[in-house]
Every structure is written in C-alpha cells, then in structure tokens.
Amino acid sequence: MKTVMITGCSSGFGLEIARHFLDRDWQVVATMRTPRTDLLPASDRLRVVALDVTDADSVRAAIAAAGPIDALVNNAGIGLINPLEAVSTDTVRAVFETNTLGTIAMTQAVLPAMRARGAGVIVNVTSTVTLVPLPLLSVYRASKAAVNAFTESLALELAPLGIRTRLVLPGRAPDTRFGENARPLMQGEIPAAYAPLMDDVFKRMREPGPVTQAQDVARGVWQAVTDPAAPMRIPAGADAEALAASL
Ligand SMILES: NC(=O)c1ccc[n+]([C@@H]2O[C@H](COP(=O)([O-])OP(=O)(O)OC[C@H]3O[C@@H](n4cnc5c(N)ncnc54)[C@H](OP(=O)(O)O)[C@@H]3O)[C@@H](O)[C@H]2O)c1
After folding, report:
1. Is 96 in the pocket of ligand 1 (CB under 6 A)?
2. Residue 10 Cα, ligand 1 centroid: separation in angstroms?
3. Domains (ranges, CATH) in the chain?
4. Would you state the pLDDT for residue 199?
5. H/E element holding 63?
6. Distance of CA 237 to CAs 18, 25, 75, 229, Å?
7. Other beta carbons less than 10 A from residue 30's beta carbon
8. Cβ contacts of 129 within 8 Å, gap of 6 or more
C-alpha cells in the first residue's frame, strides 16, 4: 500500500487531498500545524502528524514520524493581496518562509529516502497567478513563481534517480480559508493613491465566473502522483483550465 504525506491539511485543498487519497486506499500522513483528528474520517490508514513547514525541528520530527513515503504534497501556503507599500518586510519573509522555503525544506527532507529507494513523487501546489501578472499580488506571486522554477529544475535533476516532481496550479478558490487566513497579514496602512486600483481588483473578484473547487485540486494532485505521463504543470479548476488554454 502506498503512502502520501500532505502539508496543510487543516482546511481547504489539503483537507480534500487527504480525503481523496484515503478514499482510494492509500495510507495518508495528514500534517497540520495544530493536529486535529476530527476533520477526516477515522481510518487505520490515516495518521495525523504535527508539522509547521517553517520550523526545522518540526520538519525533522514529522519526517521521522511519517516513515517511508511514496509521495509528498507541498500544499501548505499563505496568501497576501495588498499593494507592496502596505506590506512589511516581516510579512514578505513570512510568505516566503511558508510558501517557498517551507516547500524547499520539505523536499530536502524527503529526498534521501526517495533516492535510496529509487522512487518517489513530489507535488508542489502553486497557483495560476504565476501564469499572468496581476496587481496587488507581487509578493505572493513571486513566492509561488519561485516554486515553479525550483520544481522544474529539480525535475531534471531527480529524473535519473527515479523521482518525479510536478506542479498543480489551482485557480481562485473562494471557498477555502485562504482569504480569511491572509487577513492578519494585511494590516499595513494603504496610501490613498491605491484606492481606485484596489476597488477595481476587488470588484472583478466579486464578478460571477468559473472558480476552483477543492475537489478539482485533489483530482489534479491525484493525477500528478499516480500518472507518470502527467504534464509538469497541471491547472486545477475551471478558471485555471480556461486560463492555461488561453496562453
Ligand atoms: N484558495 C485559493 O484561491 C488558492 C489559489 C491557488 C493556490 N492556492 C494555494 O493552495 C494551497 C492551499 O490553500 P487553501 O486555499 O486550501 O487555503 P487554506 O484553507 O488557508 O489552507 C492552507 C493550509 O496551509 C496551512 N499552513 C499555513 N502555514 C503553514 C505552516 N507554516 N506550516 C504548515 N501548514 C501551514 C494552514 O494551516 P493552519 O490552519 O494552521 O493555518 C492550512 O491548513 C496554498 O499553498 C495556496 O497558496 C490557493
């Protein structure tokens, strides 16, 4: 039986990815900053393990607790939508610590065992915002675009060792806790000059149109993990697929 380890399973995509693999008879190591056993269906194939991807001790302990894994899904992430002038350096660091360095740290942590076994898959969840420039997302987009570049280079380095890396790019998913979790990072004072742009961006976000559901992302991750012929970049969600097809 194969084992997948997923980061950021307390809500949103991570929780749904964990459900998807559990439903398909995989062993699941669902990691959370604050472990909760009531979020997923009880199963002897499920282990809930504490993990903060920004904390080296926590990463070491979680990898040790997980044991051998066939697939790692780097899903944990935090969002930020704000003019750069209203973003503190501490917030920039926090976004990169989680989205970029956390992904790199987890990847480094699983590689020795995957190399020794000559097999493994690492799936990194980034975003379609990396595909086209949008205002107010400079820091978030940079943190995820770095993961795209990291993953694509690593694919070439690891293929000879039997290890695959893939990217899943979700579109906008208003139903997860993403927006709510980003709010505490968006407290900086915003100069009035940005008001028209902000009004326009938030108005567009409220317009009806296709969005991404957590199930779309779970299906994309499943394809990335189980299909060796899966493309390097997998858009997930109706809006993501439409955007990728338009480029
Ligand atoms: N929602 C969207 O519109 C959207 C679109 C494209 C891509 N994405 C990406 O998809 C991924 C999942 O987002 P989501 O929409 O499911 O948002 P979410 O509901 O906020 O889930 C994010 C998860 O990441 C966890 N997390 C945050 N910081 C962490 C850390 N330092 N260590 C470990 N876990 C941490 C959160 O845990 P806590 O509960 O402990 O905070 C939560 O479980 C993120 O990488 C995000 O950037 C989201």
Report:
1. no
2. 9
3. 3-246 (3.40.50.720)
4. 97
5. helix 56-66
6. 18, 24, 16, 20
7. 28
8. 137, 140, 141, 144
Please write the tens of the pLDDT for every residue from 119-145: 999 999 999 999 999 999 999 999 999
DSSP label of 99: I
13 Cβ below 6 A of ligand 1? yes
* Residue 34 CB–ligand 1 contact under 6 Å: yes
Residue 188: band (very low, low, confident or very high) from pLDDT cuts 50, 70, 90:
confident
Percent of the chain having pLDDT more than 90? 99
Of the candidates 94, 188, 178, the residue with the CA atom closest to the CA atom of residue 129:
178
The CA distance from 244 to 66, in Å, is: 35
DSSP state of 5: E
What's the pLDDT tens digit per position in 45-65? Answer: 999 999 999 999 999 999 999
Residues marked as catalytic: 140
Q: For the segment 202-239, what is each residue's pLDDT rounded down to a tens digit?
A: 999 999 999 999 999 999 999 999 999 999 999 999 99
Residue from 40, 78, 217, 233 to probe ligand 1 pocket by mutation (most atoms less than 8 Å from CB): 78
- Cβ of residue 240 lying under 6 Å from some atom of ligand 1: no
